[in-house]
Amino acid sequence: MEKLIIGIDLCDTYTQVSVLGREDVWSLPTVICRKKTIEEWCVGEEAYKYTLVGEGVIVDKLLSLALKDGTSTIAQVKYDGATLLRKYLEKVLEMVCAEYPGVPVAQVVFALKNMEMKLMDELMGCAEYLGIPRDNVHIASHTECFVYYVLSQRRDVWGGQVGMFALSEEDLRYYELKVVRGPRQVTAIAEHQELEEGFSLNVLDTPSGSKMADKILCACSERMMQKKLYSSVFLTGKGFSRTDWAPDFMKKVCNRRRVFVEPTLFAKGAALKAEDYLHEHTSYPFVCICEGKLKSTVAMEVVKHDTKVQMALAVAGESWYEARSVLEVILDNQDEIELTILPHHDPKQKRIVKIPLEGFPKRPNKTTRIRIAAGFLDEKTMVVKIVDRGFGELFPKSDVEIRQEVMV
Question: CA triplet 163, 17, 69: central angle to 5 degrees?
């Protein structure tokens, strides 16, 4: 193996790590332990072992701790959540790299259940701390990893509607994917729903608990799937590491459908997405509309070589976290910037957003250059920053700057 391509499904209760080309996936609890007498760290089941014999102090829910700026005091040393998350990921990557000595990490994709900017920023900081270039690290939602995994299968698996139940210690979710072929492009539309009927996996340890869980899943499948036609159904998560506890649910879901059980689907989907970054041309030529992706294209009209063209600031299907653009233009009898918001699902619903250039210096026409920078706070909130750049020595730039949030 020349380089490591890694997908990491990172949640508060568990972590799964997939290396492309390797069938086995590392699965471990998301916990870290520091020994009491020396600053030596261990993670996963080993962390529980040292804690049980009284030699270490364990910390769990590492993602929540980092999100809330929480701290944990061990051996009279206070560690913040971001530091503990870094140390945890450092040990996880050490564990993986130990199996492939001397093989460099080429790409890493983190799969997250919830795409929260603060956590995503922390993960990018962790990667930098671990010496992995930022360009080699990406973050995707569980929904997007589901899309990549399914679309890596044979066409007949995803030719129609695809459903998936994900059962973990944290929750029960239902996912759905539909591939729509348009005249010019293919669109993969996926979404998920968190089901209120989620239950602790401990109930599966008893016959009565298993029976209750089976009934819950049967009710959920009837409600979510109804009479829809599926080309395939997937089952993932620790809860489906075995399926003998849910005979009625399996009978119902398998009725005239192909069903695939893959407990580590999100980690494997993340690894497939990581591999795609290494190709000059994508192996997945589709627009992906799902959690973590932009649902609309944002553009503005400019004149280029005497021709009016639409210049995109953001494109539907891009990761909102990675979508950034900078554009410099010269104003031509304008006192506002006009943006066109074009929803991917229905271009007829396009709308215009105007940003007045209030406070900008009055100058002769075509003697004001402005810099427009765009980024996102989440998949629905675009931040546009407009700065006066002046026009050479004749009209020096001012300190005028406009910042506006635009709902897309």
Answer: 95
Burial (Cβ within 10 Å: 0-12, 13-18, ≥19) of residue 132: buried
Predicted TM-score (pTM) above 0.85: yes
251 exposure class (CB count in 10 Å sphere: 0-12, 13-18, 19+): exposed
Neighbours of 307 (CB within 10 A): 7
The yes-or-no answer to whether 4-141 and 296-407 have a common fold is: no
Query: pLDDT means per 10 residues in the chain (408 residues)?
Result: 94 97 96 92 96 93 96 91 96 96 96 96 94 95 98 94 96 97 90 94 96 97 92 97 96 93 98 96 94 96 92 96 96 94 90 95 94 96 96 89 96
Q: What is the CATH class of 296-407?
A: mainly beta
Angle at alpha carbon of residue 177, lines to 172 and 183, rounded to 5°: 165
The rounded distance, in Å, linking the Cα atoms of 193 and 172 is 9
Assigned CATH for 144-268: 3.30.420
* Annotated domain spans of the chain: 4-141, 144-268, 296-407
> Parallel, antiparallel, or unpaired: how do β-strands 32-35 and 56-59 relate?
antiparallel
For residue 222, how many C-alpha atoms fall within 13 Å in the half-sphere facing its CB?
Answer: 9
CATH class of 4-141: alpha beta
- Return all residues near 8 (Cβ < 8 A) that are at least 6 apart: 15, 16, 17, 18, 89, 92, 108, 109, 110, 111, 267, 270
